[in-house]
């Protein structure tokens, strides 16, 4: 997403993250298949400070909106589903699932990220 949003700072954190843990092997493998390098990425826990500093917080599941608000109540208004504009709004956690599930989730995240990039970058000049 960062490549598609050069004028914006994009970061990642988890609500129930195992802070310091490396990305799941299957996630690394799936991303690499699509030219995305996530090796070396480590999990970090979402904090009130991160929520406060963010202009926009994108989450995977509807329940995550409430979880972010539990971390920092004032962040509720800027917390939105990553898949907001996709037919399927919930992006499931593929942890300990099949490689097919990781692929499906990757595709869903990629589609959602492309739409967000278009919306945040504004209309393309003609």
UniProtKB/TrEMBL annotation:
Residues 1-119 form the Phosphotyrosine protein phosphatase I domain. Pfam families: LMWPc (PF01451). Its EC number is 3.1.3.48. It is an enzyme of class 3 (hydrolase). The active site is at residue 93. It comes from the Bacteria. Keywords: Hydrolase, Protein phosphatase. PANTHER family: LOW MOLECULAR WEIGHT PROTEIN TYROSINE PHOSPHATASE, LOW MOLECULAR WEIGHT PROTEIN-TYROSINE-PHOSPHATASE ETP-RELATED. Belongs to the low molecular weight phosphotyrosine protein phosphatase family. This is protein-tyrosine-phosphatase. The lineage of its organism: Bacteria, Pseudomonadati, Pseudomonadota, Betaproteobacteria, Neisseriales.
């Amino acid at each position: 997403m960062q490549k598609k949003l050069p004028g914006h700072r994009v970061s990642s954190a988890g609500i129930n993250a195992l802070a310091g843990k490396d990305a799941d092997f299957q996630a690394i493998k799936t991303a690499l298949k699509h030219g995305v390098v996530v090796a070396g990425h480590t999990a970090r826990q979402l904090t009130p400070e991160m929520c406060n500093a963010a202009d926009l917080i994108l989450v995977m599941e509807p329940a995550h909106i409430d979880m972010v608000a539990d971390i920092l109540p004032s962040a509720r208004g800027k917390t939105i589903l990553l898949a907001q504009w996709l037919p399927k709004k919930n992006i499931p956690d593929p942890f300990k699932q099949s490689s097919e599930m990781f692929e499906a989730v990757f595709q869903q995240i990629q589609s959602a990220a492309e739409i967000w990039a278009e919306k945040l970058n504004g209309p393309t000049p003609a």
